[in-house]
Amino acid sequence: MHEAGDSFAAHVNLLLTKSHTLRPVDHPSSIVALLGIDHKSTRNFKQLVEPYTLHMSEVYEYACRLEDNQHFFVSLQPFKMAYAFSLTDVHLLANSKAYVEILG
User: Fold this and answer.
1) At 30, phi and psi to the nearest 5?
2) How confident is the model over 30-74, as pLDDT tens digits?
3) Which of 31, 34, 29, 38 minimizes the C-alpha distance to 7?
């Protein structure tokens, strides 16, 4: 699926089989950093801060948290903070503050 250009489907398959998990972008064996984006391709770097990929990754994190309420992916924290900053860029200060407070 990945070779056909469908990173999202490839990532979902890998995560559902539990053969891989979300890892930091710079981890040598990282296959999935954010759902739906091939982070190893430099032409996709700009998309690493797109809200859609973060939101899909947060949905996966939430699903994992349903199984273990202490579960979270440390590797998502920089993307979450970047998202909070982007909310402030468009003057959504209350939304940004609420999001950061949830992050703890």
Assistant:
1) -70, 125
2) 777 788 777 666 676 667 778 888 898 898 899 889 999 888 888
3) 38
Residue 22 is given by DSSP the state: B
Alpha-carbon Rg of the chain, whole angstroms? 14
Cα(34)–Cα(58) distance, integer angstroms: 9
Give this prediction's pTM.
0.75
**Among 68, 7, 69, which residue's Cα sits nearest to residue 35?**
7
Q: Where are the domains of the chain?
A: 7-103
Q: What is the mean pLDDT of residues 91-103?
A: 92
C-alpha–C-alpha distance, residues 99 and 82, integer Å: 11
Other beta carbons within 10 Å of 54: 22
